[in-house]
Amino acid sequence: IPKLIIVEEEECTEVNGCLSIGRYLGRLWRLYPTNPTTAATVDTFLELLSTFMHPVSGNDQIMRDHILCFVEELEVQVKCFPDAWLGGFEKPSLADHCWHSALQWSFQKSGVELDSEDHPFLLEWMKCYEDDDDMTDDEVSSEETPEDQESPEEDQESPKDDECVTEVDDE
Predict the structure, then answer these.
(1) What span, in angstroms and rounded, lies between the C-alpha atoms of 68 and 17?
(2) Which of 15, 58, 98, 135 is deepest in the core (most CB within 10 A)?
(3) β-bridge partners, 3
(4) Cα–Cα dist 65/103, whole Å
């Protein structure tokens, strides 16, 4: 299990697990909403990512099928908000950063390539992510703490469109 040790003054705090570390860093870097409803939207995508990253054993075709299954789900989600980031946010959240990295890595390892005819919205989302010049505009300066600034998604409402809600099945 991944572990992060946070040292503040003379006190150490241990954070265990990918999602816990990701949420901590997301709060620190202002990529994770403070509003509980919008945070739940980001969490939904993070839980889906956790399921996606769960190791799949088998041959290369099984791995490609696993990746493509999640790609189809993301295509539906991105199609619901074609002019926004995952979950309908105006700015990239922790979910966008994590999913983009995971997809890039899995495509590289598996050889999966997205087809513009079958996945136009996901390809556009990935291109927007890669082309976004504002990725560092909201970084917290070394003199400010996250508590000193408002979260960019704090006042945004979560999506209401029922067909655009991701469901994570733990079975």
Answers:
(1) 26
(2) 98
(3) 16
(4) 14
pLDDT (tens digit per residue) in 120-151:
999 999 999 999 865 544 443 323 333 433 44
**E strand or H helix that includes residue 3:** strand 3-8
- Of the candidates 90, 96, 98, 78, the one whose C-alpha atom is nearest the C-alpha of residue 154 is 90
Q: Quote the tokens at residue 22.
A: 């990701």
Bridge partners, 7 (sequence order): 12
Task: Please say whether the beta carbons of 98 and 49 come within 8 A.
Answer: yes
Q: State how far the alpha carbon of 160 is from the alpha carbons of 6, 12, 44, 87, 163, in Å.
A: 37, 40, 14, 10, 9
Closest CA to 85 of 43, 134, 126: 126
> How many C-beta neighbours within 10 Å does residue 92 have?
23
Furthest C-alpha separation in the chain: 56
* Token pair for 30: 């202002």
Q: Write down the pTM of the prediction.
A: 0.74
pLDDT in tens, 14-54: 999 888 999 999 999 999 999 999 999 999 999 999 999 88
